[in-house]
Amino acid sequence: MRNAGNDREQQAKSAATWIITLAETAIFLLVWTIYYNSRVFETHRAAGAAVSLLVYLGIYCSAATLYRACKISAYPVGETILSQLLAFGLADLVLYIEACLIANRYLSLLPGLAAAALQILAVTAWAVGAKTWFIKKIPPRRTLIIYGSDDVDEFCRKLKHKYSHLFSITETINCRLPVEEQLKKIDENETVILYETAYGIRTGLMSYLVNEKKTFYITPRISDIVIQGFDRRHLIDTPLLKYQYAKDNRRNCVSKRVLDLAVSLTGILILSPVVLITMLAIRLEDGGDIFFKQKRYTKDWKTFEILKFRSMVMDAEKDGKARPCTAGDDRITRVGRIIRRFRIDEIPQLFNVVKGDMSIVGPRPERVEHVHAYVKELPEFAYRLRVKGGLTGYAQIYGKYNTSAYDKLRLDLLYIENQSIWMDLKMILLTIKVLFIPESTEGFSEERSRQMGEPKKAEGSAEGTGEELI
């Protein structure tokens, strides 16, 4: 029954993906054939339409995969529609440029806009319908959480808030309970989440879960992520793993610097009108400074002054105490709320990138006071300082402003150990989507703001197990 339920869910997801892909492609092909193909191609119109269709499908499917535009079960309807809009919008734009280049002139945008309007209607109907069907027909999985960290309640709260239609939490039990009791609870559930469990306990439970073919998830330890930076080697008949310092490779460093300059200079040029309007708005609101500077740490513990548009009142920390922004913070100005909502306050950091203080993609550089507090409680946090800080990064895309220090570290390590130029390009494209998701700018709660110097440490973390980071 368990496998049948999983098969049904996968079949439903596959069917939904095929439906929207065919619908979006059919709308494109209709408008392309009726208008652009007939006006652009003088000969070989059938071949031209076929090639254009293949190009469109390639771009759309790649972008849909990147933005996870068909994850109807995991994401809210609004986010699914946004992801689809970015996917087919990118494909439509590339094909329009192709048509203009072939015709050697600007072509009317109206047919393309009509196609986009039809695609938006189709996507909206599909997303709402598919989500409604999924919730009605696919029941949430009975889920057991085995935990080894005291903050499991907060984890459960987040899980229920966003994924109650996927997971029905039946019980949470401590990983220190007798093994027999844990195995009995596992047998009673379809899905198991091992949340911050100690290493030895986790290994035994994973073995049992695999043998029972249970669906299960684990929260990775620091060493689990760092090992992704190793490469396979063989010493005669003995397999070895050798750590690769890919991030320190000179060729990679040069390529990354070229990408940084290309993206930052292009961004400065395109966004210059936004910069001028923002500067004027800040000055007119209260007559204070336009820019805000703050010391941050970057690669090898070097400090630099990060540049931002001022979004808070002047002297927001005049008492000298570092206070992170909280939800509904009254220090934020009216202009500040707008520019923070759309990340406009971050635009001046493009000049930090040009100067070489930052990269476009990398771990977000933290303020000096926070880094010292984090490292005191979580020494592994210093690992982020092995690479240059970034304007955007893995933690900014997959986390939120108020994500805990430990979770930020794990997210950033996933980037550090897998970084490449292609991954940087992926992160840049994903950032476009994040700009339109307000949840990612959510501030700290008042309680979390007071606990900034107390980052979470998992019970199964390196400290206390004798395990080294590398």
Automatic annotation (TrEMBL):
Keyword Transport: no
GO molecular function per UniProt: phosphotransferase activity, for other substituted phosphate groups
Cellular component terms per the entry's GO annotation: membrane
Keywords: Membrane, Transferase, Transmembrane, Transmembrane helix
Pfam families registered for this protein in UniProt: Bac_transf
Domain Bacterial sugar transferase: 256-436
Biased composition (Basic and acidic residues): 445-460
Region (Disordered): 445-470
Keyword Transferase (UniProt): yes
Cellular localisation: Membrane
Main localization of the protein described in the UniProt heading: membrane
Transmembrane intervals: 12-35, 47-69, 81-107, 113-134, 258-282
Bilayer topology: Multi-pass membrane protein
The family this protein is said to belong to: Belongs to the bacterial sugar transferase family.
Protein's name according to its UniProt entry: Exopolysaccharide biosynthesis polyprenyl glycosylphosphotransferase
